[in-house]
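Why Methylated-DNA--protein-cysteine methyltransferase? Reviewers of the renewal asked for a concrete example.
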Amino acid sequence: MDLSWVTVATPLPSGPMRFAVTPTGVAASSFTGESFAGLPAGEPRCTDERKTALVTARVSEYFTGRRRELDLPMDWRYATGPHRTVLQCLLSEVGYGATITYGELAARSGVFAELTEPGAAARTVGQMMGANPLALLVPCHRVVAADGLGGFGGGWRVGAEVKRWLLTLEGVLPPTLDWDGPAG
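Here is what the prediction returned.
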């Protein structure tokens, strides 16, 4: 298999992030170390120093507030069809410091015309965001519910705190007194 992992320390409540890299680019990422698509997270470790340095530098710059987009090459192998269309729409249309609702993203993506049940497209987008193989690179944390924060991968407690942290970093939410944001 042409996949190896880079682990990057983060200030997130979930701890370090893991990025699966291939010759094409980043193919998967994980906030909490869980496996993706049956792949064991963190095995094998990436030995390509250029790839490791690039991923580590860009992610570190994002978390210190010096970079607004990661601009890393991506390998889309784990996102196909409508899922990929929705993720690419999110990536191209919702920039740093902005949010979009699940329903708005469903409408903008143009892939849900056949769904007529009220809320079905928004729920489907929510499921797609939960299955985003390129978390952080494709900013699913910027997709929120019409009436609040919405869900996020990693379970309600950790996932919601990660989403809140990222939206605070990007200036969408005001920092709380206990927020440990960028130090640099």
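The longest helix spans residues 49-63. This is the kind of structural detail the renewal will allow us to pursue systematically.
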